[in-house]
Write a structure and sequence with these properties.
Keywords: ATP-binding, Nucleotide-binding, Transport. Belongs to the ABC transporter superfamily. One of its GO terms (molecular function) is ATP binding. This is ABC transporter ATP-binding protein. The protein has eleven helices and nine strands. By secondary structure, the chain is an alpha/beta fold. Strands 5-6-7-3-8-9 form a six-stranded mixed sheet, sandwiched between helices. Strands 2-1-4 form a three-stranded antiparallel sheet, with helices on one face. Strand 8 and strand 9 (about 250-255) form a beta hairpin. Helix 6 crosses helix 7 and helix 7 runs parallel beside helix 9 (about 205-220). It starts with a helix and ends with a helix. About 35% of the residues are buried. It binds adenosine-5'-triphosphate.
Length: about 270
């Protein structure tokens, strides 16, 4: 890994690079999804039954090459935005950094345990918000004592109780925005080595977004690295100092937020 630590892909000189601690290194990373049973026109139940009866293998494996040779080095204290058109590979890259998707080739190195905070982060719908706060805290490695100490802070931050005592109701009674806010609040209660956020900010209302942006800035100060996937350029502008722009799985640009956003806005005509 040492050889990657001096690598300079962010326009920063080797001396400055050495002083900084790398937290995530992606080295020529390729991610390929395989979708089985996609033989054109052969997806019907009758066709499947015929194949089973004749003991023929299922037709067609379609490969989706979602991330193509991406390399970058992230450092402690950085907040990095991931931008790009729909389907450009942002969520896939985030999941690979979180260790949830295997690399087809290339490698991801991480310092510490990355935590993925996405709109799909698993909370239990049938349990109350209160129980989910406790379980979520324990699942992130907090002690019972720490969870107890931070419980009120998490609930206040989420704003779930602003419109009544929702925290004692099952999560299935929450709107999607409320659920996303609670997820963010649980995850943000802990100092993460590497915090990966997928569109979480887009789901809350404006005042919650402001609070989350402030919390992301704090997390950065507390020496973590934050990755944020968002289609909202203003959220990226407010929170990130560096941006990776993916297009069709390829890392098209990696640099300071304003430079990359300007090029991206040119590209999208925004
Ligand atoms: N589970 C999956 N199986 C097969 N293909 C997938 C799967 N998930 C994503 N893909 C494909 O991988 C590519 C990248 O998808 P990904 O979700 O990473 O893009 P994205 O940049 O996050 O998109 P968006 O901005 O729309 O959320 C797309 O072509 C998508 O169709």
């Amino acid at each position: 890994m040492a050889e990657f630590m001096t690598e300079n892909r962010n326009g920063i000189g080797p001396a400055a690079d050495e002083a900084r601690v790398p937290t995530v290194i992606a080295d020529d990373l390729h991610i390929v999804y395989r979708v089985y049973g996609t033989g054109a026109g052969k997806g019907s139940a009758t066709a499947a039954l015929n194949r089973i009866v004749r003991r023929r293998p299922s037709t067609g494996v379609r490969e989706v090459h979602a991330v193509k040779g991406v390399s970058f080095t992230a450092h402690r204290g950085e907040s990095i935005g991931l931008i790009g058109s729909n389907g450009s590979g942002k969520s896939t890259l985030l999941q690979a950094v979180a260790g949830l998707l295997p690399a087809e080739s290339g490698k991801v190195y991480t310092h510490g345990q990355p935590s993925l905070l996405g709109v799909n982060a698993a909370l239990m719908n049938d349990l109350t918000g209160e129980k989910n706060v406790i379980l979520g805290g324990l699942a992130m490695g907090m002690s019972r004592e720490e969870v107890r100490e931070r419980y009120d802070g998490i609930v206040d931050f989420s704003g779930i109780n602003e419109k009544g005592d929702f925290i004692s109701l099952p999560m299935r009674t929450y709107s999607s925005g409320m659920a996303a806010r609670l997820r963010f609040s649980i995850a943000a209660a802990k100092d993460h080595d590497v915090l990966l956020i997928d569109e979480a900010l887009a789901t809350g209302d404006r005042s919650f977004q402001k609070r989350s942006e402030a919390r992301i800035r704090e997390l950065r100060k507390e020496a973590g690295t934050v990755f944020l996937v968002s289609h909202n350029n203003n959220s990226i502008r407010d929170t990130c100092d560096r941006v990776l722009w993916l297009e069709k799985g390829v890392l098209r640009m990696d640099g300071p937020t304003e430079e990359v956003l300007a090029a991206y806005e040119d590209f999208t005509g925004a």
